[in-house]
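Re: the multi-chain job from yesterday

Posting the exact lines I submitted so nobody has to dig through the queue logs.
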Amino acid sequence: MPLQTGGRLELYSLGIDEARAAIDKGEISPMELTAAFFKRIESLDDRIRSFITLDKENALLQAEQAGQNSRHQLAGIPLAVKDNICTEGVKTTCASKILDNFTPPYESTVTKNLKKQGYVLIGKTNLDEFAMGSSTENSAFAHTRNPWDITRVPGGSSGGSAAAVAADMCVAALGSDTGGSIRQPASFCGVVGLKPTYGRVSRYGLVAFASSLDQVGPITKNVKDSAILLNIISGHDPYDSTSADVAVPDFTAAIGQGIKGLKLGVPKEYFIEGMNKEVEEAVKQAIRKLESLGAVPVPISLPHTEYAVAAYYILATSEASSNLARYDGVKYGLRVEGKDLLDMYMSTREAGFGAEVKRRIILGTYALSSGYYDAYYKKAQQVRTLIKRDFEKAFEAVDAIVTPTAPNPAFKIGEKSDDPLQMYLADIFTISVNLAGVPGISVPCGFTSQSLPVGLQIIGKHFDEEAVLKIAYAYEQATEWHMRRPEL
Amino acid sequence: MQYEAVIGLEIHAQLLTESKIFCGCSTKFGSGPNTQTCPVCIGMPGVLPVMNRKAVEYVIRTGLAVNCGISPLSRFARKNYFYPDLPKGYQISQYELPLCEQGFVDITVNGETRRIGLTRIHLEEDAGKNIHEGTGNQSFVDLNRAGTPLMEIVSEPDIRSPQEAAEFVKKLRTIVRYIGVCDGNMEQGSLRCDANVSVRPVGQKELGTKTEIKNMNSFRFIEKALDYEIRRQMKVFNEGGRIVQETRLWDPNRGVTESMRSKEEAHDYRYFPDPDLMPIEVDNAWIEQIKSQLVELPDARRQRFISQYALPDHDAELLTAERVTADWFEQAVKSGGEPKAVSNWMMGELMRLLNEENKQIDECGFRPEQLAGLLKLVDNGTISGKIAKTVFEEMYKTGKDAEAIVKEKGLVQMSDETGIEAIVDEVLKNSPQEVERFRAGDAKLMGFFVGQIMKLTKGKANPKIVNELLRKKLLG
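And the result, C-alpha cells for all chains:
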C-alpha cells in the first residue's frame, strides 16, 4: 500500500505492479516517476550511498521514450542494477578499482531482457568488491548504510540494491547471489530477495565471482514484483551453456494460490546456539503463521549443513582465483606500469584489488595448487554433493523448507570487518542453497526490539520457484511487515 | 654403452572450423590485428564460452581416423597461467576425460612398419599472439587467433628415432588433411609439434629423465632438433653427467636446443573443471554419424590403389599422400586413363611442372579428364609418346584439350608407310658413310637415323614404323 503524505501519493514508494497500473491509468507519467526517484536519491543517497553510478540523463530519456501507452511490462519503470552486471555504455565497476574505468561494450542478457520490457535504468548499485562480502564494506568506493539504521551495514554483497529498494530510491533492483548476496541483504534491509535455481537465469554479462554458484535475481518491495521480474529475466540463453533449457512458467500465476496442506520442512540445523534470540523468535512466529494458513511444518534434518561454509569457501575462492585472472592490466581496466611484464601484473593487481578479494584469490589459488587439490577442491566438491543429497532427500518429504535467512540482524559498520571468519558466518544459512543450486527467497518476517528487519528464508526444489513464491506471497499477504518503511 | 632414444610427441592442430571455439568470430588467418575479436574471445568481464559443436565433431573424426576410443562423457578444464596473449588468464582445455583416448598409427621407416600408440586427443582453445617486432620498446597483443579451436594429439613414448618422429608427424599431417580437419600448415603454425625426449641404455625398462623440445616448425627441424638433443643427452651421460628435466627451445639458426625453463620454474597450472561449460556427452548415434561421413583413409586407399589399379607400392604411396592427388588420379582413371600411364604422367611431368611453380595439384591448369584424353590419343596412335609430352606442356599452359592442341599445331602422327618410307630412303641416301658403318656393326647409329627422320618429320613419324622400315632397309 503506497504511503500518502497529505493525501498525495508518494510515487517513490510504488511497487512495479502499482506503478504499472498508475502509468497505464494515466495518473502518472514515466517521466514524473523517474524524476521522483532522482529527487529522492538526491536527498537521501549522500547518507545511504546505494549507487556507484547514476545515469539521470539517460534515465529521463528512457522514461520519455517509454511514453504513456506501452504494452511492455516495465515501460517507464525505474530499476537499479547491481554494478557487477554489464550494461552496454554504462560503467560497470564491480566496486573495484581495477574496473573503475570499465564501460562494457555489450549488454548482459538479464538487462537486455529488462530493456525489451522498456525498463528505465536508474543507476548501478554498490556491492562488496566483485560480490565478495556480506556487508558491502568491501566496496572500493563507499560503505552503503542500512536505511533502518545508518550506523549499520545493509548486508551484502548486493547491499546497494537492497538499501536502494528499502529506501525507495528505485522501484526494484537486480542483485546477484553466490552465497546469500541477495537474500541476506534483503533480510537486513526488510525487503524481498529471490535467488533463482542455478540455471534459471542467464549469467551472460554477470561478472563472474564463482561461476558454479552465481545467479542473478530480483530485490523488490513485495513478492509479486519478485515474480514479475523473475518472469522477465528467466529462460534459456544460448550465450550461457549453464542456463537450463527448461520451460518458464508464469510465476505471477503461482502467487495467490493457497498453501493449504503444503509440507514445510524446518531443519534443526538452522536453529543454532549463538544465533540472535529475537531472530529465532521472529522466524518461529512466522512458521506458526504459515501453519495457521494451512501449511504443515515438518521437522527435518540437513545433516551436512555444518560443512557448508567450509566447502563454500574452498569452491567459491577456487573459481574466483581463476575468474579474476583476466584483470591483468593488459586489455582493459586499471594498469599500473612496471619495469617488466611480471612487475606490471603485480603492481596492477596489488593496486587494483582490495584486501578481501586478494585474500580469496590467495585462498583459491592455494586450494587448486598441485598437491593440495585433492585435499581441498576435490574434498569440497564431495561435500557439495552430500549437501545436494541432503536437500534431495528432504524434498522427498516436504514441498519447501523454511529457515531464518541470517542468524543475526544487520550489524554495525566495522563490527566484523576485521574478522573475516565472523563475516563468513553471516552467510551460514544461505550458502547451502547455492551449493545445492536450489531457489531461495527472503521475505520480511518481523523486527527486533531495535527495529531491525528480520528475514524468513523459503527454499524450494530445483526449478520450483513457484512454490517458493506462493508461500512467500501467502505469508506476505497475511502480515504487514513489508509495509513498514524506514524513517529517513 | 649402447643408448636408445625414447620420444613422445605432442601435436597441436588448428581445426578448420569457420568460427572460433567459443564465439562466432572468424578463424581466418592473416587479418589486421584484433579485427576478428568480440567480448567473448577478448575475455571481457562477464562473458561465457559456448562450445562450437563442429570443433568437437572434428576431434571425434580424428579420433576415429587414428583408432581411438571416443569418451562417452568428456569434460573441459581450465589451465591457469598469466600471459598477455591469454585474455582470460586461463586456457580452456581438457585434463581429465579428454574426447579421445588410446589410439595408434602405423608408420614405416626404412621398410620397417612400427605402431605408435596415441595416449589421447583433446580439444582446447588457442591463445593470441604477442607482437614484439617493430614496436619499439613496447609489445602488442593480437587476439585474432585467441579462441581458434586447437586439437592436441599426444603420443605414447613409442618413438625411437628422429626419423620415426618426422614420419609420425607426416603421417598425422596426411590424415588430418585427408579428413579435412586441419590444413597442416607448419610454417603458419596450424600444425605444431613438441617432443619429450629421453635417452636410456638399451635393455633398460625405466624411462630416463626427459626434456621437452619446442619450436620445431618443419619436418626437417623435427629431425634435426631431435638428433641434436639425443646426441646432447648421450654426451651428458658419457661424461658422467645427469639430464636436467627442463623445457628446451630449438634454435634453427644455430642448430642447437637451448634451456628455456627448468622443472622448478615450471608452471603449476591448477587445472580444475571449467564451471562455465557442461560436460560433453557423445552417444553412439553421434559417433556413427561421424563415422559414416569419414572418408577413406590414406593407408586403406594406398592398399586399394595397389590391388585395384595394380600400381607398384611406390606409386600408390606417392599418389595417396594427399587426398587431392589421389582424387585427381582416380578421376583420370575413371575417365578412361590406363592407371599406370596416369600414374607415370602425374608423378613425372605433372609433378615437375607443378613443382617448378610451387603449385598444388588442385591448382593444375587442366582437369584429370583432359589427361585421360591425351592418353587416348597416344593409345590410338594419333600422336607419339614424344609428341604427347609437347601436348602435355601445352595443355598445362593453356588448359586446352589435347585433341584441340594436336589439331591446332598439326601434331598428328605420320603412320602412312609409303610417306615414311620416302623419308627413310632420303635419309639413308644422304648418309652413306653412316650406313656403311652401321652395316659394319656400329648398332648405336640406329639412333642417329631415327633422329634424322624425326627431325625431318618434326617428330611426327610413327616411331614403330620408322624402326621397322630402317631395320628392313639396313639389315634386310
